[in-house]
Specification:
Length: 268
């Protein structure tokens, strides 16, 4: 029987994150070796917004460059991981069983929030990948329920990853990634949210809008929703694997969740 996989939340950073040295990149480049080898990876991405949950069902998903600017070498990056149409269909069925009108999209590729961190975590691009959308007009409870519905995939060797940003204050973001100092507003929210994640305090996390400086840290919440999907897939106390700050307001944090949910009971 496949090992029960953890779930991860990865702050994906800027489009050039995978090409630029940083402490976050160094930690992520070593993380894959500490995990059981996934049979496939399902990635909830902040960069794919749909009205209802959608799974990428392409056999050979293309690399999407959903950003402007940056060095031409970043704009030409390719992450040629295979898709997993069977996993997309299985995840779609799990979500439908949970009451979500989910669909599989055979044309969806891998956006920067997917291939950016994966190109550091698994640079060989030899593990099948399925992207999952977020719903911008839904709430935290909706995305938590999406994660809970997908939890059974963990016992089939599927690594569930949410990739977004713990803080995403674009208005006060510095142009350069390595400016000294940290925006105190972003720090207060990141510290508050981190305490809830470490404690596995689902009630507090669902009330994230009551956290200090929540509205400046996330004027819109699409970059936070992948966190709730990852947390819902392995609900319980989390472990912070890395914490740093880029662009003054972007909390580059990586979290691991190993909780055993009702849908992902431990192997006998």
């Amino acid at each position: 029987m496949a090992a029960l996989m953890p779930a991860l939340f990865l702050s994906h950073g800027a489009p050039d994150f995978s090409a630029r040295p940083s402490s976050a990149r160094e930690v992520l480049s070593c993380l894959g070796a500490t995990l059981p080898r996934p049979a496939a990876i399902l990635v909830a991405t902040a960069h794919w917004e749909t009205a209802e949950p959608s799974l990428g069902g392409a056999e050979r998903p293309v690399t999407l460059h959903d950003f402007a600017g940056y060095d031409w070498r970043v704009r030409r990056r390719r992450y040629a991981a295979p898709g997993a149409p069977g996993l997309a269909a299985e995840a779609t069925a799990l979500l439908r069983d949970a009451g979500f009108p989910a669909i599989s999209d055979v044309f969806r590729g891998l956006d920067q929030a997917v291939w950016g961190p994966l190109s550091v975590l698994y640079p060989e691009a030899d593990i099948p990948v399925v992207p999952l959308s977020v719903q911008p007009f839904a709430d935290a409870a909706h995305h938590l329920a999406v994660g809970r519905a997908l939890a059974p995939l963990r016992r089939r060797g599927v690594l569930i990853i949410g990739t977004g940003a713990l803080t995403h204050d674009r208005r006060h973001m510095a142009a350069e990634p390595d400016v000294p100092g940290e925006c105190p507003r972003a720090a207060r929210f990141a510290n508050w949210l981190g305490r809830g994640l470490a404690a596995g305090d689902t009630e507090a996390l669902l009330a994230w809008e009551e956290g200090p400086n929540a509205c400046t840290s996330h004027a819109t919440a699409e970059h936070l929703w992948p966190l709730f999907i990852a947390y819902g897939a392995a609900e319980g106390p989390g472990t912070c694997l890395h914490a740093s700050v880029q662009h003054a307001t972007v909390a580059m944090q990586f979290w691991r969740f190993d909780g055993v949910s009702a849908g992902a009971s431990a192997p006998a």
